[in-house]
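Worked problem 6 (solution included).
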Amino acid sequence: MSHFLLQPFDKFLKLSEYTSKSIKKCCAGNRVVDLLFHFPVSVQNRMSDINNFSDKDKLTIVVKIVDHRAPRHKTSPYKVIGQTSAGDLITILYFNYNIGFIRKSLPYDGVFTVSGCAQKTTDGIQIVHPDIIAPPSALKYHVGVEPIYPLVAKLSNHTLRYAINSLLRIMPSIPDWIPPDYGLPSFTESIKIMHTPKTTEDILISNPARRRIALDELLTNQIRLRQIRKALTEQRVMPFRQTNEIIGHLQLPFDLTADQLSCLDDIRKDLAAEIPMNRLLQGDVGAGKTIVAFMSILIALENNAQAALLAPTEILSVQHFNSLKQMSEDLGIRMDIMLSSNRKIRSKQIDKLQSGETQLLVGTHAVLENEVEFKNLGLIVIDEQHRFGVLQRLALIKKSKYPNVLAMSATPIPRTLLLGHYGDLDVSTIKIKPQGRKPVETIVLGASKINDLITRLKEIDSQIYWICPVIEESENLMDINTRHKYLNKNFTAREVFVLHGKMKPREKENIMERFKNREFKVLVSTTVIEVGVDVPSVNVIVIEHAERFGLAQLHQLRGRVGRGDEASYCVLLYHYPISEIGKRRLQLMKSSTDGFLISEEDLKLRGAGDILGKEQSGFNSLKFSDFSSNRELIQTAEKISRTVKFDSERIKFLCTIFSRLDDNIVA
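Solution. The predicted structure is:
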C-alpha cells in the first residue's frame, strides 16, 4: 500500500520556508494528503478574447507597456497603458500603489502577460490590479478555467496550485477499496478530478468525485465505530443483577410509563450480560429519562459498584446532584459532586472515590481528568450525550473495570444521525410523557408587540425565562444587557436578574438558587438554561429572535417550562427581516410539540452540524460530508463497512488519512 500520501509534502516540493509554513497553515497539516484534500471552493475563467469576456471572467492578455500616467490627486488611480498586438489599448489601474514598484514591474516598452478583472468603458478596456504579471510565454499557462482555493496570509492561489499540481503529477495509483459496482471513480482518480474543475458545479457534492471522497470519509467513520464497538463487546464484565436491596426502598410519587419500563428492561438485560452495556437512552424533553437512569445507577450500587453521572454544565450537574440526593434521601447512598470550580477539595474527593467511600459521583468534564480514579466504577451515565464525543466516552470507560455506559439525550436524534454518529450504541427511546404534564402553548409574536406582552406578563403570577441570543451588544441581535435595562424600566429592579455563561460558577449557582426560591420574577438569560434546568414554578418562556434559532434548540428551550401543574406558554418573539426558513421554523414550533418530528425537520432545514452546534456537538468533525445532505451515502458507507472485508493495514491507512486514530483503538 502506498504511503506517499502520508509523507511531508515539502519532501517532494522545492519551497521556501515561508511558503511551506503558509501552506501548512492553509491546509491544517504538513502531509501530502492534507494538501491534496485542500479542495477548491470555486473556479475562475481566464479569457484571452478581448471581444468576448464577462464581468465574472479575468481577462488574460499580452500587452506592451506604452505609457505611465501618475494621478494629480492621491485618491485617483495610477494608470499604466498597455497595447495588444492588434493595437487595442488596455488601461491597468492601481488604487493602492507604490509608484517606484509599478514602474519597475511594468517598465516602458516591456512586454508582459497581465490578467485581472476587466470591464469595457467609454475609454476602452480597463483592468484593475492584475494578479498575474509574467512574460509573454506564460500566456498559455494562464488561459482557461482554474480552481480557486481558500487561502491564508500572503499565500497566492498560483503558488498553492503549483504545489498541488506538482504532487498530482507524481502521485502513484493507490489500490482501491470500494467495489466498482458502486459507480464511483477510484480514490486516486477522484483526487485528480477535484483539482481540475471545469465549472462551479464540479466542486459540489453532486460531483461523483466529491461523493467518492465523502463516501470514503463516512466509511472510515463507520469502520471506527465498528472497531470501538468490537473492542468493547470483546471485554468481559461482571454481570449486575437487580437485587432490590436498594431499589426496594425507593418510594416514587408516580408510576413509570410503559416506555420508561421498557427502557429500564433493556438496561436490566444489558447490565445482567457479561459484555459491557453501551446504550443510548433518548427521549423528548420531560419524558422522564432521569428516573430511568437513577434506577440503573441503583442496580450498579446493589452490586457493590460505583457509578458516575456526567453532565455538560455546572448548572445541570448541581441540579442532578440535588434531585438525586432528594430521591435517595432514605436510601443511604453516599454521593459527591465534582466541578471545575471546586478544585480545592479535589484531592479529598479522589481519596473517597479510590477508597470506595463515594458510591455515586455527579460532575462535569472535571470527572474526565487523568487524576480522577475510582475504586470500582461500574456504570457511567452521560447526560446530553450529543455534547460529548466518542473519545470523551472512552476516557471515562478507561477508568472502569466494568465499563457499562448509559448515554442520554433529550435532543431526539434522527435515524441518519444515529447511524452516522452512534453506530456503536444500542438505542432505547421514551416517547410517552408522564401523566399530568400539560402541553406548552406556543405563541408566535412580532417584536413590535413587546409592550403588550410585558403588560400581560406583569399581571401573571408565574416566573419567566427571557432568552436572548447574545450577551454583548450586537448590531443585529438583542443582547442580554440591553433587554435587562428595558425590562427593569417595566418591572421593578428587584424582579429582573441576569444569567449567562461568562459568569463565575458560584454566581450562576446563586442566581439559579434564588430563582428557584422565587426571590425574583424574570430571569434574562442566554441559552445556558437550554439543557436540563428544572424550575417547576416557571410557566412562561420568551425567546427573543426566535427566527434565528434552530428547531431543536427552540424545542429544548420550550422544554424548560411545563414542568409544573399550571398551564405554560412559550412566546417566540421574532424580529424583521425574517427569512422563509425562519417562518417555517416558527410555524412548525407553533403547530407541533413532537420533538422527533421537529428533529427530523431541523435536520432537513439546517443540517446536523447546526442542529447540535459546532462548539457543543462533541462529534468527530467531517470535512467532506454532513449528515443532512448525505443520508444515502451514510447508508452506503454502513453497508460497505459490513460487507467488504478490510485488512488491518487498509483500515489503519484510511483512518490515518482521514484522522480517525486519536482514540488509540487500532485494528
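Discussion: The chain has a mean pLDDT of 83.
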